[in-house]
Structure formats: C-alpha cells, structure tokens
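Reminder to self: tokens first, then the designed residues, so the page reads top to bottom the way the pipeline ran.
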C-alpha cells in the first residue's frame, strides 16, 4: 500500500471518527458551557479535515461544487477553528479579558484571506496542490493560514498540558492531554506546510495528509473520553452486579433486613431489568452483602475458617484462592446455621473482611458456587463416630 492510499484511508477513517464523536457528545457538551467551546472547536476542525480529503473533494466536484470554493471554505473554517481553539484556551486559563482581542484578530485574519482571494494575487497550482493546498498560492495567504494554526495549536498544547497537571478530574485530565497530543500533530502538519511554502515539493502532501488523519483520530478521542469512562463504569457495575448476585442473594435470604429491596428471581432479571441504575445497584449489593456478612459473623463456629481452608485445599483450590474459598465455606455454614434457627456462637473469625472491600467480596462470590451447600468436615465425619 502506497503512502497516498494509506493516508487516504486514515483520513477517511478519522473523518468518520470525528463525526461519530461529535454526534455522541453533542447533547451533553452543548448543555455544559465549559464543554461547549471544545465541542465547537472540534466541529470546525472536523469540517476542515473533511474538506481536506481528496475523495470527499472529488465527490463535491461531481455534484458541481467548484474546487476553489471547496478549498477556500476549508481554509476559512480552518482559521475559524484555530480562533475557537484560542477562545477555548482563554476560557480554560480564565483570561477572559483576552477574548475580545482573539475575536478581533480572528476577524482580521479571515477578512484578509477573503481579500487576498478576491484580488486573485496568485495563479492556480497543480492538481494535487489544488485539492489539498490553499485556495490561493500567494505567500501572504499561506503565511496567514499557517501562522493562525500554529499559534492556536501551540497555545492549546501549552495550556491543555499545563492544566491537565493541575486538575483532579480524571476525565478532564485525559481530554486535555489528548487534545494537547492532537495539537502536536497539528503543529507538525502546519510546520510541514510552512516548509512546503519555502523549499518543499508536492511529494510531502501524502505524509501531511497522514499526519492530519492521525490528528483527527486523537481529536475524536479527546471528545469521547467522558463517554468511554461512562461505558467502563457501566461495564464495571454490570460485572459487579452479575458476579456478586449469587452470594448477595443467598446472604440476603438469611439476613433479609439488610436489603432495601428483595432480590429478583434470577440475576438475568437483576441485570437486564434493574430497579435502579447499575452503578447504584452494584454499590447497594456490595453494602448489603457486607452488612449480611457482619450479621452472620456471630454464627461462625470457632475454628471453622481453618477447617474450611483445609477442606478447600483438599479439593484442589489454587493457593491464591484459598482464603476466598475458606471464607465462602464459613459464610455458607453460618448462613445455614441461622436459617436452621441455631443460636449464635459469637466466637468465630473471618480473616480479611474487616473493611469489606469490593474485591474481597467478589473473590468470595467467585468461590461461592463451589463452596456453598458443602457439608463441613465434622458433619461428614459424624456418622463414623457412632457406635
């Protein structure tokens, strides 16, 4: 695959990624003022990158759109995106008194580009340059276009990275850092155009197209960070709800007063038809499981944990799961003792569950199916002691 073909595929892929990210984040971003500027900035950049792709430009030309119109529109929107980057960085840096200066400079830059274009100070370039190059080949036109982008992306790189080091919001940190990395690729892209202006050839354009395609993917990723985090949190809550359900269900059966709502008939219903958001459901199951565990603690017989650990070892449980298996076995014995109406023993121990961490409870839940309803050793040996 040639560089041009690779750049074309990466470019089209980045365009789809950008539009997908914009569509996914449109509603939440436009509702929140501190995200609206970033979303609009990426929107302008996406339109410019879309109009940079040769396939898309060719498609527009097939519909009768003039090539010069496409490239001029791309360049103007590109400068607008650079100005929006600066406005967003001004807001992030809380230097709002510079906003009017940025807006005025942006208006002057766009106006100058339009004037230079109307004056037609240059002749059209070759085929590739006319598709992916500026609408006007005059040095002044190039310099305004390139400098506007370089300033915007350099400021974005510095501000985003600096504020990512100060923020404690994990989503914001990753969004800012990805935006900063995207700015690095944008700086490389426009530096390449600056070199092209003075000493380069059109042969560099496929490489620049590849760079701006990668930049598009990174910009899309910076927008999608909150959504990806939400998906990861939902998946984690789903995993906790699913894995913890058998243990939670059985313990709540023995200690029903710890549950805010009784378990549903199956865990499929608990996951597919939750009565509360999955994150809340997982949190509630964790707390209720631990509360039930504390209640059952008084039914643990002396020496039951050591006995259950030896029993788990004899059944071939791996060493790293012995503690969880022993706790599962002891809890099951305590649960059955309470269900049978046995009096509390009050002197047993449950090592490692003082704080009831979620990982500890999940470890017990994983061993629960194999250890629950298993008779303790002394019960199985009892008939042998009879005369």
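Designed residues (387 positions):
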């Amino acid at each position: 695959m040639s560089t041009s073909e690779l750049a074309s595929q990466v470019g089209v892929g980045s365009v789809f990624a950008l539009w997908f990210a914009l569509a996914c984040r449109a509603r939440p971003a436009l509702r929140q003022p501190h995200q609206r500027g970033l979303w609009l900035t990426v929107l302008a950049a996406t339109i410019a990158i879309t109009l940079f792709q040769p396939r898309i430009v060719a498609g527009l030309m097939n519909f009768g759109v003039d090539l010069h119109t496409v490239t001029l529109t791309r360049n103007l929107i590109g400068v607008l995106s650079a100005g929006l980057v600066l406005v967003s960085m001004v807001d992030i840096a809380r230097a709002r008194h510079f906003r009017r200066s940025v807006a005025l400079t942006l208006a002057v830059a766009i106006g100058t580009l339009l004037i230079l274009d109307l004056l037609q100070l240059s002749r059209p370039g070759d085929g590739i340059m006319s598709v992916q190059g500026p609408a006007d080949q005059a040095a002044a036109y190039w310099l305004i276009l390139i400098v506007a982008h370089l300033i915007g992306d350099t400021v974005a790189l510095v501000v985003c990275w600096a504020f990512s080091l100060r923020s404690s919001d994990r989503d914001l940190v990753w969004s800012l850092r990805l935006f900063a990395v995207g700015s690095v690729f944008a700086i490389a892209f426009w530096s390449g155009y600056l070199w092209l202006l003075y000493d380069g050839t059109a042969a560099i354009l496929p490489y620049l197209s590849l760079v701006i395609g990668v930049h598009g993917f990174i910009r899309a990723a910076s927008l999608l960070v909150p959504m990806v985090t939400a998906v990861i949190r939902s998946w984690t809550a789903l995993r906790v709800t699913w894995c913890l359900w058998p243990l939670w269900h059985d313990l709540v059966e023995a200690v029903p007063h710890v549950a805010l709502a009784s378990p549903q008939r199956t865990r499929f219903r608990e996951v597919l038809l939750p009565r509360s958001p999955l994150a809340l459901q997982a949190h509630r199951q964790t707390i209720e499981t631990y509360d039930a565990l504390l209640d059952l603690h008084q039914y643990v017989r002396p020496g039951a944990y050591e006995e259950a650990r030896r029993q788990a070892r004899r059944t071939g449980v791996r060493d790293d799961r012995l503690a969880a298996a022993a706790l599962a076995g002891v809890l099951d014995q305590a649960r059955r003792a309470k269900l049978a109406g046995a009096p509390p023993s009050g002197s047993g121990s449950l090592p490692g569950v003082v704080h009831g961490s979620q990982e500890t409870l999940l470890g017990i839940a994983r061993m629960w199916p194999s250890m629950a309803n298993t008779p303790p050793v002394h019960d199985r040996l009892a008939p042998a002691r009879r005369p």
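The chain has two domains: 3-226, 255-379.
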